[in-house]
Amino acid sequence: MLKTIFRMTFGIIFAAVWFCEAISITVEWEPAQTTVNGDPLEEIHYYKLFYGTTSGRYTDYITVTNGTSVRLTDLEYNKTLYFCVRTCSGPVESDYSEELFWTAPVMPDSDFDGLSDDWETFYFGSLHRAGSSTDSDGNGVIDLEEFIAGTDPMNPSDRPILRISPDGAVYFFAEKAGGSGYENRTRKYRLLHSSSLAEGNWTPVPDMDDIQAENQLVTCGVPMDRAPGYYRTEIYLD
Ligand SMILES: [Ca+2]
Ligand SMILES: [Ca+2]
Ligand SMILES: [Ca+2]
């Protein structure tokens, strides 16, 4: 099987605004020696660098005519890219190289408080007003929880809510992660049940775990013969 040795290096370029970084990587490779059919590649004219966000599925490629490396700029945070390369001699091409992947760093959090810098800047205009334990709107939900839940940290009436309907179903709105600071993040929910607040012992309700938020109403019927209990949601970002 044909293999092209393929290596990558990466670095981060810091832009003029310190909390606004741009990511770039340099991808390098070595030329393949043979065509798809195993014949020698007579003369190398260019390379095709394929890439995509799913392994084995390359949605785009770059043609490189000068050298065996290319610099990719303005890449997104929290995203994994998969690469492979083909060596081309006119219309004749080598096989695909082996695949390598690169995972971009997570969204910057320059003051290490768990709040993405973009989110802090969007709501507070600064990184210094909110931290890991502040509750800027005083509604009992700290800013870190508001960031995870996607609620407005400056609006006390906007908070995660779990409701129960008259017919005994518990339900909540699963808000999709989006906007400043949530690029490539996925918000997920799970519904937990406990028969006693005193004992704790919260356990996931069957089929109500790892729910990906797509701006949908999530409803869980509670059997009328079930013993009295308590419910709560857990919200997290992937
Ligand atoms: Ca931060
Ligand atoms: Ca902060
Ligand atoms: Ca709050």
CATH class of the largest domain: Mainly Beta
Total number of strands: 15
> How many separate structural domains?
3
Mean pLDDT: 83
Ligands: calcium ion
Amino- and carboxy-terminal Cα gap: 37 Å
- Point out poorly predicted stretches: 1-21
CA radius of gyration is 25 Å
Could you characterize the architecture of this molecule?
The protein is mainly β and 238 residues long. The protein has three domains: 6-103, Immunoglobulin-like; 108-158, no CATH class; 161-238. It contains two helices and 15 strands. The chain has helices at 117-124, 143-149, and strands spanning 6-14, 21-29, 46-52, 60-64, 69-75, 80-89, 92-93, 100-103, 163-164, 169-174, 187-194, 203-204, 211-212, 216-221, 230-237. The strands form four sheets. Strands 3, 4, 6, 7 and 8 form a five-stranded antiparallel beta sheet that branches. Strands 11, 12, 13 and 15 form a four-stranded antiparallel beta sheet that branches. The two termini are 37 Å apart. Bound molecules: calcium ion (3 copies). The site of one calcium ion (CA) has 7 residues, from helix 1.
Characteristic terms for this protein:
binds calcium ion, 4-stranded antiparallel β-sheet, 5-stranded antiparallel β-sheet, disordered N terminus, single chain, 15 strands, FN3_sf, about 240 residues, FN3_dom, Fibronectin type-III domain-containing protein, Immunoglobulin-like, mainly beta, 2 helices, Ig-like_fold
